[in-house]
Amino acid sequence: MRVRVDPLVCEANGVCVGLAPEVFDLNDDDELEILKPDVPAEEADHVRHAVRSCPKAALTLEE
């Protein structure tokens, strides 16, 4: 599974960071960074929840 962000849509609300902090982070410029684009199996459920919870629908999954 691979997760991607559309930087033109993302508002860096940080919902995904709160739900999957091992995969997502906000940098010093308040831009979303994906720490593990190839999602580890143990984080898959958290990342799916984060993608569904993104208020701007800026995250996508490729499974």
From TrEMBL:
<keyword id="KW-0479">Metal-binding</keyword>
<dbReference type="GO" id="GO:0046872">
    <property type="term" value="F:metal ion binding"/>
</dbReference>
<protein>
    <submittedName>
        <fullName>Ferredoxin</fullName>
    </submittedName>
</protein>
<dbReference type="InterPro" id="IPR051269">
    <property type="entry name" value="Fe-S_cluster_ET"/>
</dbReference>
<keyword id="KW-0249">Electron transport</keyword>
<dbReference type="Pfam" id="PF13370">
    <property type="entry name" value="Fer4_13"/>
</dbReference>
<keyword id="KW-0408">Iron</keyword>
<keyword id="KW-0003">3Fe-4S</keyword>
<keyword id="KW-0411">Iron-sulfur</keyword>
<dbReference type="GO" id="GO:0051538">
    <property type="term" value="F:3 iron, 4 sulfur cluster binding"/>
</dbReference>
<keyword id="KW-0813">Transport</keyword>
